[in-house]
Automatic annotation (TrEMBL):
PROSITE patterns reported for this sequence: ABC_TRANSPORTER_1, ABC_TRANSPORTER_2
Record organism: Prauserella marina
Parts of the chain that traverse the membrane: none
Protein name as it appears in the record: ABC-2 type transport system ATP-binding protein
SUPFAM superfamilies per the UniProt record, alphabetical: P-loop containing nucleoside triphosphate hydrolases (SSF52540)
Stated family: Belongs to the ABC transporter superfamily.
Keywords: ATP-binding, Nucleotide-binding, Transport
Entry annotated with the keyword Nucleotide-binding: yes
One GO MF term: ATP hydrolysis activity
PANTHER family registered for this protein in UniProt: ABC TRANSPORTER, ATP-BINDING PROTEIN
InterPro entries: AAA+_ATPase, ABC_transporter-like_ATP-bd, ABC_transporter-like_CS, P-loop_NTPase
């Protein structure tokens, strides 16, 4: 489990993360969403002890990262797939990690096999494509067989087959009871992968809960109806105070659920060919909820780091 309490980070005068509190529980894939510059990368770096909070704290299984006895056996992370030395092979890189962290060497080949890199295990990482580098980064995260996993943009550079693979893989990790925390700008993919969401904007928590609830609260609920008797049905629905709009091959109804629409159709002896609730998309919900939080079009975290570097000169 990951738990943040009042997490705050300043870079000079810039507030990147502002009194942020959230919980990521085991057994679920939790998506971490927010506009550019919302503080996602800074938050993940603080979870992993790479940045120190200005205030508050974040723990993994009740301990701060630096208090973990065997960090890579507890938490694995993919933040930057290109940090591998370009002259090292995938196997050499993982072997170095295993030796330096007292991880059984058998995990090297197991991790390479899991991510599909066995056939290129002895090739230089500098010659890897972006997708292959991502797979090596995921293998690095899995090396210690950790209970907690953090992925920042895990599908970056992957082809459609690779995207499907990482989606199913993260879901399988969650089914095994692990804590999976993933940040991505591909909202359509997050809608298929994450069952829970933590959404932030300007460093503050905007929403935490299930993906379904997030979408339902932020988008209008409508029902699509098709019938050979549309005029009769339209009149009956309007009389029941429903909002009715014409669609290409039917009606879009809001203000009534599908059960009530079905009852009205039956009462009016109207034949229905389709009666299907229409769910809004995660993209629509995200834009609706976070619209006011898109204050900066540049990356506030990058600007904050520049401010810190300037102040230290």
């Amino acid at each position: 489990m990951i738990e943040a309490k009042g997490l705050t980070k300043r870079y000079g005068k810039t507030l990147a993360v502002d009194d942020l509190s959230f919980t990521v529980t085991p057994g679920k894939v939790t998506g971490f969403l927010g506009p550019n510059g919302a503080g996602k990368s800074t938050t993940m770096r603080m979870v992993l002890g790479l940045d120190n909070p200005t205030g508050g704290q974040v723990s993994i299984g009740g301990k701060r990262y630096r208090e973990l006895h065997h960090p890579l056996r507890t938490v694995g992370a993919l933040l930057d797939a290109k940090w591998v030395h370009p002259n090292r092979s995938a196997r050499a890189h993982l072997s170095w990690m295993a030796k330096s962290n007292k991880i059984p060497m058998r995990r090297v080949d197991e991790s390479l096999d899991i991510v599909g890199l066995t056939s290129v295990a002895n090739k230089r990482a500098g010659g890897f494509s972006l997708g292959m580098s991502q797979r090596l980064g995921i293998a690095s995260a899995l090396l210690g067989d950790p209970e907690v996993l953090l992925f920042d943009e895990p599908v970056n550079g992957l082809d459609p087959e690779g995207i499907l693979w990482i989606r199913r893989f993260m879901q399988r990790l969650a089914e095994e009871g692990r804590t999976v925390f993933v940040s991505s700008h591909l909202l359509s993919e997050m809608a298929l992968t994450a069952t829970e969401l933590v959404v932030i904007g300007r460093g503050k928590l905007i929403s935490q809960g299930s993906t379904d609830d997030f979408v339902a609260k932020a988008t209008d609920s409508t029902v699509k109806v098709r019938s050979p008797q549309l005029d009769k049905l339209r009149t009956a629905l309007a009389s029941a105070s429903a909002d009715v709009a014409d669609a290409d091959d039917g009606l879009i109804v809001s203000g009534l659920d599908s059960a009530k629409i079905g009852e009205i159709a039956m009462q009016q002896s109207v034949v229905l060919h389709e009666l299907s609730p229409q769910r809004g998309s995660l993209e629509e919900a995200f834009m609706q909820i976070t619209g006011d939080s898109v204050q900066y079009h540049a990356d506030i975290e990058a600007e904050a780091r520049k401010a810190l570097e300037s102040s230290s000169r």
